[in-house]
Amino acid sequence: MKQFINKITPSRGFSYVLYIVLNAVLPLLVFLLVRMSFVQLALSLILLSKWRMFAVRPRFWAANIRANAIDIVVGVSVLAFMVASGSELLQLSWVVLYVGWLIGIKPRGETIWVSLQAIIGLAAGLMALFLTWSHAPLFILVGSVGVLCFFAAHHFFYSFDEPYMGLLSYTWAYFGAALTWILGHWLLFYGPIAEPTLLLVSLGVGLGSLYYLDHFDKLNYSVRRQVVFIMVAVFLVVLTFSDWGGKIV
């Protein structure tokens, strides 16, 4: 994956400067369109920025969509956060974070960075989903969470050349969808974070850390026990102290 990213991302000269400028301009244009209340146009701009996905033969489109899904999720999520932000200063903060994503995080192909991209995409996508569609029918939330979990898991496992990447990605997608179906009947919020988001991101970080450490032979019994204990503790605390009366907390 690192070699593939290096081929499409310039590293020096005029092309690199142009690459930086174009990636910095996109968040600014999105910000301006949001300020002018052209949200749909801003969404179209984010999607059009990925036009290269379809500049190949149609049989490669599905693979390109999977490879670019996390970047699209982050872009659309930032747009949702901008729209929901109440002040111009906060919206500009999202611009800075989006520029940091496009220039500093997204182009990196090392395993640790790709893993970070997957976690950021999962967290941002789930937060934006429940922020904007919390009152949507449950089947829409369940399906959307399943798709987000699939793309995040696929992005994560791709950097490891995992032979069971498809199976593991679908398994995580099913788990995310099933958890959302259960918790969606009593959708609770902790500030801006929905309960399914908190649980899925916590479990995703924990399981991803275990897989990463085991892949590089850095996982021992003590570390495994600590990570599992933290995941179980978060899960139990959230479920035990939640107000199941159905109100927002």
The number of strands is: 2
Helicity range: over 70%
Largest sheet: 2 strands, antiparallel
Which spans of ≥5 residues are poorly predicted at pLDDT below 50? 1-8
What is the tally of helical segments?
10
**Measured on Cα atoms, how large is the radius of gyration?**
19 Å
SSE pattern, N- to C-terminal = HHHHHHHHEEHH
User: Could you report the average pLDDT, rounded to the nearest whole number?
Assistant: 88
The total domain count is 2
Strand order of the largest sheet: 1-2
Could you tell me how far the N terminus lies from the C terminus, measured between alpha carbons in angstroms?
42 Å
Strand content: under 5%
Structural class: mainly alpha
Question: What spatial form do the alpha-carbon principal axes imply?
Answer: globular
Description:
By secondary structure, the chain is an all-alpha fold. It folds into 2 domains: 1-109, no CATH class; 112-249, no CATH class. It is 75% helix and 2% strand. The protein is built from 10 helices and 2 strands. It has a two-stranded antiparallel sheet with strand order 1-2. A hairpin with a 2-residue loop joins strand 1 (189-190) and strand 2. Helix 7 runs antiparallel to helix 8 (165-183). The longest helix is centred in the first third of the chain and has 24 residues, at 61-84. The model is unreliable at 1-8 (pLDDT under 50).
